[in-house]
Amino acid sequence: MAATRSAHTVWEGNLFKGNGVVTFDSSGILAEQPVTWAARTEEPGGKTSPEELIAAAHSSCFSMAFSNILDKAGTPPTKLVTSADVTFQPGEGITGIHLTVEGTVPGMDEAAFLAAAEEAKVGCPVSQALKATPITLTAKLA
Question: Sign (positive/negative) of CA torsion 104, 108, 110, 111?
Answer without folding.
Answer: negative
